[in-house]
User: Fold this.
Amino acid sequence: MEEKENPIQSLLSEPLVAINLGLVGFGAAILDQQAEVVLVDWFPPAGGDQELIDLLDQLL
Amino acid sequence: MATSLIIKKKQYYDSVFLMGVNKRLSESEGVIQSAVVMGSEANKQTLIEMGIQDPRLQTAQPNDLIVVVTADSQHTADLVLEQFDQFLEVSTESKNRSSFHTLQDGLESRPNANLVVISVPGEYAAREARLAVERGLNVFLFSNNVSLDDEIEIKQLAKEHGVLVMGPDCGTSILNGVGIGFANRVRSGPIGVIGPSGTGIQEFTCLVHHLGSGISHAIGTGSRDLSDAVGGMTTLAALKALENDPKTEVIAVISKPPGHKTLPMLSAALTNCAKPVVACFLGIHDDVFGAGVSFRLASTIDEAAFMAVGKQGVEVKNFEGQDKYAGGLSGQHPTQQYLRGLFAGGTFCYQSQQILQSYNIPVYSNSPLDKRYALQHPDHSQQHSLVDMGDDIYTRGRPHPMIDGSQRAQRIIAEAEDPGVAVILLDFILGYNSSMDPVSDLLPAIQTAQQTAARRGDRITFVASITATELDPQGYESQKLALQTAGVITFQSNAAATKYCVKLLRS
Assistant:
């Protein structure tokens, strides 16, 4: 059975495939370098309510 | 003078984007002061400290946009707010909004993702990092304001899942030739580098490029990784990864001095590494390490670059510029004797202090190596002073000097008012995500300072390091030429620029 490469070695040996959460400029710069990136239009979950976020995490 | 405020419900934008909007807003005619921020508790507190008393502030939620304008009249303040959507729309053109809103959305779109880049506000960053690590993903965590406890927990979790967590407070990485965060575009090659400082990595990678070699990977670790509390968890994981990476032939570690307990552990790991290692722990000399250490120790970042590319015999002073200007301070008034350094890069402020100290030149700073030389107020220089303008006091709610030179420009003009100032040392850091024209951001201030000194019959010498390569999007040659045309003496490294300042001060 083929051994699965560990995530760190995969990061260093395979083309970058990134998910960008936050500053749009960071994702855009990765795109500019012809690398693959998903731009996530992130905003605080549960309206930023920490108690609700904790509840949400317990449900997941 | 009058102040108006609006709250736009459920309109979330990132902080750098909003700083850009605010900058344009604040330049509107009649506007004295403005703020465009999300409704987090920290932002609301900052607005209250600014004197904004409006009770509507308390109703704002973290996903609500708050816009405050203080103008020369109520009419102007109201008018600017009425037109605010136009500012947002103009700016939104360059903002690629996506239909994905969570990490899970992103993962469903790219199940083969191997990195999550996180730059969300600190209070939410640890949660996103934890979710990524639990899904077996490596993380580049730019966000700061992540608690030390969270950092330790996330890094331990990363160890269990066999992933790398670069950060929190990680400014720069280069992975397989792709720069993440504030990174320069450099040649690929056999040298891998690990370090907690973004600007330290930027300078090292640029110098390796200038020396004709290249970078396999540059792995940022986050500013606290080599503290005793964190114990170098990311540094050690990165070292192992580069040791196993077939593209990497030489490994460099660039850092301020690690914690006392962490240093011997790191030293053992570097000694046991199967590949040649160059270490630069700014301020730590050979005598700290006992016998049996196999790695090479550099005292400055540029020396580390020379060692890493195998040009041990070449003197560091050969970096561009060092020999061109031997004129000293001729033409300056005898009372002009002080150096003022105004830095965007915290590591440069640190390294410059060390170099000056090594020449027994006492230097004050807002981020001092020696607490006895702490500036009484960061805004007021005294004698020789080096100021880290990326420090929290200058960046809370305001753009970092690598993105926006406004605060540094004001400080240059203020320093020139002091007739004791002989030399002003600056750093210009190009690359992805930095200001697209950092030199033009400061040139008017440099010229104003020169005119201020000239009116007194004085001359201030400007010295600058430029952290950049010719591949960077800003255009290295044009930036350098603009500085040199304005009479600024430029160097490719902070250490070379600082040593030149020492030469000037001693002349």
